[in-house]
Task: structure prediction
Amino acid sequence: MQIRKKVWCALIAATCLSFSARAQKVEFTEYDLPNGLHVILHTDHHAPVVAVSVMYHVGSKNEVAGRTGFAHFFEHLLFEGSDNIKRGQFMKIVSANGGTNNANTTQDRTFYFEVFPSNYLETGLWLESERMMHPVINDIGVKTQDEVVKEERRQSFDNRPYGNFINIVARDLFTAHPYHNGVIGEMKDIDAAKLDEFKQFFKQYYVPNNAVLTIAGDIDPIKTRALTSSYFGPIPGGPAVVYHKTEEPPLSKPIVDTFYDANTQIPLIAVAYRVPGRDSRDAKVMQMISNILSQGGSSRLYKKMVDDKKEALQVLAFNYSLEDYGMYIIGALPNNGAAPDVLKKDIDDEIVKLQTELISQEDYDKLENQMEDNYVNANSRQIGIAEHLADGYTFDHKHTNDLNEELAVYKSITREEIKDAAKKYLDANQRLVLYYLPGKAKAK
Amino acid sequence: MIAAGALLMQYTQAQTINRAKEPTPGPAPVLKIKDPVIYKLPNGITVLVVEDHRLPKVTANYMIDVNAVTEGEKAGVLNLMGSMLNEGTKSMPKAAFDDAVDKLGANVSLSWSGGYASSLTRYFKKAFGLMGLGLEEPAFTQESFDKLKSQELTSLKAQARSAKAISARVTNALAYGKNHPDGEFETEESIQKLTLQDVKNFYAKYITPSRGYLTITGDIKPADAQLLATKVLGGWKGAKLTLEKIADAPNVAKTEIDLVDVPTAVQSEIHIVNLTNLKMNSPDYFPALIANYILGGGAQSRLFMNLREKHSFTYGAYSSLGASRLQGLFDASASVRNAKTDSAVNEFLSEIKKMRSEKVTGEELKIAKSLYAGSFARGLEDPARTATFASNILIYNLPKDFYKTYLQKVNAVTVDDVLRIAQKYMLGDNLRIVIVGSAGQVAEGLKKTGIPVKMFDKYAVPVTESAQAPLPDIKAVDIIKNYINAIGGAAELNKVTSIDASMTMTLQGMKMNLNEKKMLPNKDMETVTMNNNVVMKSVFDGDKGYQQQMGNKKDLTADQIAQKKVFTSLTRQLDYVNNPAFKLTLKSIQKVNGADAYQVEVTDPTGKISTDYYDVQSKLLVKNETTETSGGNTVMQTFEIGDYRKVDNIMFPFKTTITQSMGGQSQSFELNVTDVKLNSGVTADDFK
Result:
């Protein structure tokens, strides 16, 4: 009986796997231009839409001390125009042609994209190649974007409830590594920088050999390949980008911090741990632990703290996964005036349970289903697929096919590995306890 | 393979391109709008299926076409009823229901307007079944009801002082009237009065197959979808739904400003509105889309370019012009800093006037058309979009080819159409300009616009402005002197050389201790501790000082030092009366906690202004307001002071409620004194 059951299970698993692989494999072609630009093409004629994106492997962790915020500042600066695109015209060209565009910066990379009706593919290539080839970097642009970034800082961090939460966690968890500085950086650093420093930063990092061009959607791959050569081929390559990871010494004792945010009405109590970077298997194990703790009404923290004890309005557990390390964060917002330390105790009890007991087979099956569902939902739009492909190349050692293999990795992670990772990384003596409270520090 | 390879070689030859010119687009793609397969179930549900096998998932969306419901004194019941549908079913308590959903890795959620289920293809049958169960037999337990009611009350409290929340409520209430479904709103009182029976009554009336639209999209065959829909929802019976008849509300006879005072606001929330009768099936619809985009639809539009880019009054200014089966709203809005409120109103009005009096340029029209064409094409990436098209055609009674000819209709719009539409839907003389902000700071400027200003409270009730009470015949300096006498007299106060006060405060369950020490002439020191850890400390030794927070130490700036040095006494009011460099002005009599108080504005020798309120009867200081600017943000602080008790020969306030407001948000906390020592326990070493 035992054997038959096993065979049956394996059979089911195999069918499911092959089924999903067939239905979901994201096909792509990839190649390098002679200047080192890596190009990835994905074709899908379902809707008349094309996403054109460039991922530069530069983020706030590439900044030097005293010049924080540079990478994010460049995200803005590179909208100022180019030799052939007049100042203020970049975004106008996009919307006047029925497109949308945006950009975002993390600690590790900067991502620019446009989504157009597919007959505007060339417009997208022109815009992105102009940006890479000869953007205008001058005092007017620096000054304008300086104001905009200050406004963004107010809107997104200083005026937004919980806006500084991640910055504080990063500040406390990292002392040697540049992850210590938030992506937005210090405004005084940008104010103090000379124009030449901006030009130098551009030359160093925004070169074709440090970028991935990904085009996804309703395209003819052969014609598109020729177009990428025409638009991006003439851009000269630069010296190879050298980056050395700063090793962060292990935490020797718990850190306790309190931060006040005048925009919030309800406190947030959180614990945070350092975990391995995003290319590691353990980063995926931690992702699964997040689901066990806080995904869905039956997740352990949600059920206990929100539904049963009614002491929390909301619970959260997530792996803020970065290239060199991750920040693993668990937290809760109190309800009915519950004391933060009561919430912390309940969180800690669940961590201990993960460290000492294997999750049940039932819970494990649930987890596998959730991982698969999340995975399928992540690939529903062309711009999402483009980013996912570029991520694989940039962060998984040039392994673009990562997105097609990710689910198999999740499925191979065992219950024992989950328990071991909880023991190894969720160590009460090597963590940050953060009281993120409403109000201003100054009280009279 | 070889042929393809050769082809590839050929094409990868780079072409020389003219970079100086924006590329010419290729021929416009032909938009394929595939019609969904539509079935009708005998109980009235219309089923629309869009087949799309690219991903192994299926999504179902059930929408009940309720349109609008007047809740009346039960305001808030629909939302609460919707939340209750997620609290388990008759056969499955909430925990079991959640577990069943999560086991599938699925998402299932329900609301008063329907339900949603999404899952991997192989689990869709189960996920959809759970959605059906939630709709058809909710558990409706008292325990869930009590939990959700308390959560709703908590979130209402958290928003009580939010200028944005007040603005949304008051704008709709004034525009539509409080008895209109779009104008009514829930309050703490209305939520408190709701019962589980109310929830059951509304459920019986509105959660029904009647006027229901079920959209199933994804990796499923239409025939299978129909079978499944029939199996899960086909046997469901419910009340017949008829749309409520709602009378049209009138626009104001003459443009007016409706001002709601939120004294702590640092920004004014401006909404300039009028009601419209724009319908999606009217020929006006497409010109209206274009006209609104040109005025305020995006970051390239006129309002944004004027109010943000040209004048820097705001981070963004927008407009919307809604089509609705009931009345829609034309709404131009922005959050503007206090000082620029009246200027912003003038710019808004002049942009609206320009839309009504001048034709837009050909270039503006072209850009707006491209934008709609592009966003229509991009929208087709979402497979559910074509199902939405089909259900809209049924619900809004649109021509069958409405979406197939969408782009043609956008392209047909002329500059004359835009002018005609602006004149019809963006009114010239019948606008309501609803402003939620600090009346003390914005009212004067608003009066100068020449538009009548009417005052309303936070619940849209008119505030009858009693004729400005004449200022009493008393000098500001005497009010201060009366206060000094009331708390013990100058002679006793002058004997105080040091103060050592201990206080506690509770911030949402977190208990903290404060210790404040002061010593002549103006030394002061404060520490805040939590669980015996010092979380904040500030010190001023008479010449210099610092503020320290979790290892982050900042020296006081020259300005901060100058402001502290103007005092030479531990009771600042002694300086007010002794030092002529302090300017005192009696502004008015205001109500503080229901009692009359003198509002005295104090300008210190450095020019910094603060406002004190002294109770007319007791003479005591009952409130103080200051504005601080730090890191580019303006923070308004209000101290409400009370519970005076005698310490030695001096009256000392034992309770202070501090309210801080910034960027439309505010929050309060209470300080309670536990111990005060005068002239003991303080040494100069405390201020190091």
Q: What stands out?
A: The longest strand of chain B covers residues 633-647. The CA atoms of residues 55 and 219 of chain B lie 7 Å apart.
